[in-house]
Amino acid sequence: MAACGRAIGAYGPGFTLAQVAAEAGVAVGTVSGRFGSKHGLMLAMMTAGAETVADRMHAAAARHRDPVAAVLAAVLVTAEGVDDPATTTNHLAQLGVDMSDPALREGLAVLRSRVRAVLRTLLAAAALPAAPPPARAARIVAGLAHGSQMDWALAPAGKLTDRLRADVRAVLDSWREVGA
Q1: Measured between alpha carbons, how far is 89 from 150 in angstroms, rounded to an integer?
Q2: CA 162 to CA 166: how far, in whole Å?
């Protein structure tokens, strides 16, 4: 799955099974035999991503005692592997393709749901008095993270992780004080 992610990052939605195989250091037949097609590979990658995202977000959050820092760490997991403008742009282009395919779109919905569930739990624990209810706060933070990634890809300045951290922290800080 990591090889597929790297191929998407390098080549965008036009990536081939041969490029994935080269990234993985295996024969094309190995990739083709395991997944059947590029679509099959994308479905497997989407499923694997959805299955592991919550654990990766929880692990990142667990490294922080401060609940707001835990939220920030979890958000940064959503940007793993897309740390330069070209890679980010290629992944965003693939997202457009994924959204046009009903099965991949369903996989994205599962992934989105799991990201929001983790954020909802972490935001509830953060006890930010001026925040909206945790479900809405999670939707806002997730949307902000995705929007910040897209904005950064269009006009990259500095590191993506620094941009995400600053943007999400601005919202979380505004929720710390009632009347803020």
Answers
A1: 8
A2: 6
Tokens of 19: 């490029």
Residue 46 lies in a domain: no
Residue 3 lies in a domain: no
How far apart are alpha carbons 76 and 144 in whole angstroms?
Answer: 12
Range of the domain at 138: 53-174
- CA–CA distances in Å: residue 160 to residues 2, 59, 118, 143: 20, 21, 21, 15
Mean pLDDT, the chain, as a whole number? 92
User: pLDDT tens digits, residue range 107-144?
Assistant: 999 999 999 999 999 999 998 999 999 999 999 999 99
Q: Are 110 and 50 in contact (CB under 8 A)?
A: yes
The answer to whether residues 42 and 98 touch, using CB atoms and an 8 Å cutoff, is: yes
CATH code (residue 133):
1.10.357.10
Tell me if 36 is assigned to some domain: no
Overall domain count for the chain? 1
DSSP 134-161: HHHHHHHHHHHHHHHHHHHHHS--S-HH
